[in-house]
Amino acid sequence: MLKIIRTLFLLAFVPSLCGASILRITVNAPIHPITSEYIVRTIRSAEATNARLIIMAINTPGGLDTSMREIIEAIVNSKVPVAAYVSPSGARSASAGFFIGIACDIYAMAPGTNTGAAHPVGISITGQSMDKTMEEKVTNDAASYIKTLAEKRGRNIQMAEDAVRKSLSYTEQEALKGGLIDLVAKSDRDIIDFLDGRSLKRFGGDVVTLSLKGEEVVDRPMTFRQRFLLTISNPNLAYILLMIGLLGLYFEFAHPGAILPGVLGGISLLLAVFAFQILPINYVGLLLIILAVALFILEVKVHSYGMLSLGGIVSMVIGSMMLIDSPVPELRPSLRIIIPVAVGISLVCIFLVTLVVRAQARRAVTGREGMIGEVGTARTDLSPSGKVFVHGELWEAESDQPVRMGEKVRVVEVEKCLKIKVKKEKT
Fold it and tell me: Which ranges constitute the DSSP H helices of 305-363?
């Protein structure tokens, strides 16, 4: 029943797939939950619409192990054959992308591409590299996994294992001669022509014969939601969102009632938190950034002659550099982004702190406190009470010493009954 409902939904809301025999998807990003969702949902859509083939164009440096295994699980259990195609020329399918390619029914590469370099690299939540024992365990697990996939697909087991254990990478010609891939293709049409009329052994042992001549290739792009999530999962943007979020909340706390900075800061911070669920976060780096904001706030309360602000800048820069620690460069923010943003945010926080300190030190100019210290003129004799003209107004006043009409006086106190105390101004 659920399968029927899912099929009807796809036919109603994804009309471009109706009757499509060949679907083409493009993975031009690291392997993480968003790319995993994109690939897995496309495979399910292809099954629901009885597609005959999925061509998956890959250009990836690798990514997360959990997402890679989700994709491979969907591929090996797919009712529709999946062809991995490393393209365009100059692209690569490294690390997790290599595993995915080996797991597919057909593995093709465009001229001038490479694949391999699949040695696992892991980090703990504190950003430290794995110890030797743990690294051996992870490597052995990955090697066994790739050997199983290569054996099931009839590919060169030794070359696949060397890509994991020795981090070897292969050109398209090396991979073809070694029996690691099925063909070198200049376009999707080369793959279709290669498979047309060919009997293909599936992962479960079943044999299917493909008839693809004259079939239309339909592109299946990411949905708007997937493109949006893929964009904010960019490590550079995720880091900037975190900084904007912290700055917005800091400004809202320092100036309550501004509203807009708090709203933008909250939204940015939540988007950054989502991105951090995808990226390998070093929580020590995150705590250092939070400590930096706390030091900037303390500068308002404690006169440290700039030491707290200096400590905040150092903490902000170091925390930013430690924040995202991934073995895949594409999953790390660039230092060209980190240094200017961290220093810029620090200077903005210090500037806001300076404004608050100056505002606190400035003498009040309105209300009861603004009257104290003002100089006026006695309009009547004060012995001890009378009237004085001060701050543009006529006030009831009293003085502890006699004051003659026309003499200058200075306000020393404002009483609750709107009466002021003055003293004779020295000439």
Answer: 307-322, 335-361
Three-class SS string for 254-314?
A: HCCCCCHHHHHHHHHHHHHHHHHHHCCECHHHHHHHHHHHHHHHHHHHCCCCCHHHHHHHH
Q: Which residue among 45, 67, 87, 95 is the active-site one?
A: 95
Residue 95 annotated in active site: yes
The pLDDT score that the predictor gives to residue 124 is: 40
| Same domain membership, residue 310 and residue 411 | no
Residues, the chain, total? 427
Question: How is residue 108 written in tokens?
Answer: 């093709």
SS3 148: helix
- Catalytic annotation, pick one of 16, 89, 137, 186: 137
Q: Are residues 287 and 405 in the same domain?
A: no
Tell me: do 216 and 255 sit in the same domain.
Answer: no
* pLDDT digits 0-9 by tens, 51-107: 999 999 999 998 888 899 999 999 999 999 999 999 999 999 999 999 999 999 999
Q: What is the dihedral of CA 66, 72, 73, 79, to 10 degrees?
A: 160
- pLDDT digit string (tens) for 372-409? 778 888 888 888 888 888 877 888 888 888 888 888 88
Per the annotation, the verdict on 144 as an active-site residue is: no
Q: What is the pLDDT of residues 158-178, one digit of tens each?
A: 999 999 999 899 999 999 999
Give the C-alpha separation, 86 to 156, whole Å: 18
Sheet hosting strand 92-94, strand order edge to edge: 92-94, 114-116, 169-171
Q: Which residue range(s) make up the domain with 15? A: 2-225
- Listed residues 225, 256, 288: the one ending a domain: 225
pLDDT in tens, 263-303: 888 888 888 888 877 777 788 888 888 888 788 777 766 76
